[in-house]
Amino acid sequence: MTATEKPTTFDSLDPRTGDVVASYPVHTADDIAFVVARAREAADWWVELGFDGRKEQLTRWKGVITRRIHQLAQIVHDETGKPHGDALLEASLGIDHLAYAASHAKKVLGPKRVSPGLLMANQAATVRYHPLGVVGVIGPWNYPVFTPMGSIAYALAAGNAVVFKPSEYTPGVGAWLASTFEEAVGRPVLQVVTGLGPTGAALCTSGVDKIAFTGSTATGKRVMAACAETLTPVVIEAGGKDAFLVDADADLDAAADAAAWGSFANAGQTCVGVERIYVHRDVYDPFLAKLVAKAEALTAYDADDAQIGPITMPSQLNIIRRHIEDAIARGGRAVLGGPDAVGERWVQPTVLVDVPEDSVAVTEETFGPTVTVAKVASMDEAVELANATRYGLAATVFSKRRGVELADRIRSGMAAVNGIITFAGVPGLPFGGVGESGFGRIHGPDGLREFTYAKSITRQRIKPLLALTSFTRTEAAEKQLAQIMTLLHGRGTTIGPK
Ligand code: NAD
């Protein structure tokens, strides 16, 4: 290969060793054009199947995935390094979403009657949700099954064909999903293209009918810019800097347990992971002691039974180190871990306190097993600090009396009260963020509708009493219209002098 030639393959690596797991093709814009054209043909067949037919096919696929769940978990483990049990959990959640999407599409997207209102009382009004055609799904590596399945399953159930571009760190997971789909369904309704950023960029401008992107905020902005060229709609599921609030009346053992899981599971590489903790001053010391005790019991190391795996993307190690160093340089303290916790592939749990709120450890997504803990004088202050971010993905509140009230005041797409990340496991709940965490919703009925367009149809049932939309409209009809409007809307607050 000469310096100007582009590589035609790339390797997926085992993050624990750096060894090559497998090689995959770098798909080009031409390859993608071919795949999208195939998807369009397959989409016609898929649409013809109707909700019941698609449900049958998706259920068959679900069966294949479920029966081979350990095989899938093994590939996730090999490509991300995450513990096998965690891989199994994310695959299970992904399957649950597939089941939900397949079985709820008809009810959510089928024709629905809508009240025609008084002026159009002679009309039967219905809305139905049509598939968009071909949806491009671009996925991250941190939850390579669960995350893209939140788009793939819902887009498919809604009647679309899907072209999936998995992360370059987890191409094997994507290839496995597409090959099991092919085996179960036998048509290219779900296809995979592999490659690095430029392959994702080419998918954005390939003429697909929507892009469902999950990844970092920076890439999300590039995806939006590329999609703007062709006015391709997008759903953006991006990064976060989620806060965890501990009220004075919280169950501190449960809160510390949840905070440890939220901060350190998957080595902190979770979009809805806990990155900032705000604790009421009355319980700050005992909570911190409990959290540190939990974290001390965890070690990230290279063994199949380790609870914390490696950092999947080596370049992230520098970001994690920089955040810890900035926190400490600006007056923060590491009560556990610290800069030395960042190794060549593993990062040990790190708990930071007294970190200024404008340190990058508080303002930027760290995406590592680190967390800042801050003392607050009141829960109002905790809410204020939680909201002082450009992100807005999710949040957690531990409180006996005020949990839901506080959760509702946090500007985020999701929140868990007295639990951790539980919203992601409820298939009927929408998933997504606000601000720089993105927009649009996957999962639940909103997630199904995200991959459709609404089609409104009116049908005349009887002749209109007042001919309003005709040049035969009379003055009498106009008078009657004014009377009806006064009757309907003329009462209530008056503006100006009575
Ligand atoms: P990333 O942005 O680096 O990559 C995501 C995907 O985009 C990859 O498939 C990549 O190849 C592709 N890509 C890169 N450049 C592109 C371009 N110019 N055009 C189109 N596609 C391009 O993200 P990552 O490192 O894979 O994932 C980690 C990030 O994802 C974190 O920020 C995390 O918070 C976020 N995330 C968000 C959610 C959510 O639901 N909100 C879920 C999981 C992860």
From TrEMBL:
SUPFAM superfamilies: ALDH-like. CDD domains: ALDH_DDALDH. It comes from the Bacteria. The active site is at E237. Residues 5-457 form the Aldehyde dehydrogenase domain. InterPro entries: Ald_DH/histidinol_DH, Ald_DH_C, Ald_DH_CS_CYS, Ald_DH_CS_GLU, Ald_DH_N, Aldehyde_DH_dom, Aldehyde_DH_NAD(P). Gene3D superfamilies: Aldehyde Dehydrogenase, Chain A, domain 1, Aldehyde Dehydrogenase, Chain A, domain 2. Belongs to the aldehyde dehydrogenase family. This is Aldehyde dehydrogenase. It comes from Tsukamurella soli.
